[in-house]
UniProtKB/TrEMBL annotation:
One GO BP annotation of this record: methylation
Keyword Membrane (UniProt): no
Protein name: Class I SAM-dependent methyltransferase
EC number: 2.1.1.-
InterPro entries xref list: 23S_rRNA_MeTrnsfrase_RlmA (IPR052939), Methyltransf_11 (IPR013216), SAM-dependent_MTases_sf (IPR029063)
A Pfam family that the UniProt record links to this protein: Methyltransf_11
Organism of provenance: Branchiibius cervicis
Length: 209
């Protein structure tokens, strides 16, 4: 991503969060724009990226991108909430690229389902083949698609609590009090030397207009 940004003229980063990823790029294009829909993150991005001349645009979830057709030669994202392939294709100029890392299917679901029970419909979401097909339907050419399944090991119940408080969308109603029994069972298991194992899934997609 840093290499692509260094060569771009006009770039857009979608769902930028607090701007953490863009801030790590050593070279940014002369015209760099990011979008973010969650107000606290948008504020953080403005503070973090202001010194580098990045334009931060707060958007509404699910709304069209507030940019003219063919505005960018590069669109990027790290973990977009829900990629809108039609809008991505619209704001890309011809031969422009969308390069992103998406969360894959059933990511960390061993942990999520430990607390919530089976989630069959949610497990089927974010399939990389489905997303690639949607990109093609929007008129994009998928140049590269790579997948990864990464092992997560939890050795301490405190790490589980910290993670669920950080990723609040995994178990939306999580509190220590509400899930006291499950947490105590996990704690006993870990004290016996059995880590809790889950897997995060990701896919890297490069699509060209």
């Amino acid at each position: 991503m840093a290499g692509r940004l260094a060569k771009a003229r006009r770039a857009l980063d979608i769902d930028t969060g607090g701007g953490e990823v863009i801030a790590e790029a050593p070279v940014l294009p002369a015209a760099m724009t990011v979008t973010e829909s969650w107000p606290p993150n948008a504020d953080r991005a403005r503070t973090r990226l202001a010194g580098r001349g990045v334009r931060v645009v707060q958007t509404d979830p699910g709304a069209p991108l507030p940019f003219a057709d063919r505005s960018f030669d590069l669109v990027t994202s790290r973990h977009p909430v829900q990629p809108d392939w039609t809008e991505i294709g619209r704001v890309l100029e011809p031969e422009g690229h969308y390069v992103a890392q998406h969360v894959g299917p059933a990511s960390a679901f061993e942990l999520i389902e430990y607390f919530l029970g089976a989630q069959p419909e949610a497990r089927a979401a974010r399939d990389p083949r489905t997303e690639a097909a949607e990109a093609r339907s929007a008129g994009l050419t998928v140049v590269d698609l790579r997948t990864a399944r990464c092992r997560m090991e939890f050795y301490d119940v405190g790490a589980v609590v910290w993670t669920l408080r950080k990723c609040v969308w995994w178990v939306p109603d999580f509190t220590v009090e509400r899930y006291d029994l499950q947490l105590r069972e996990l704690d006993a298991r870990m004290r016996r030397g059995e880590p809790f194992v889950a897997h995060s899934t990701r896919h890297l997609i490069d699509a060209r207009r």
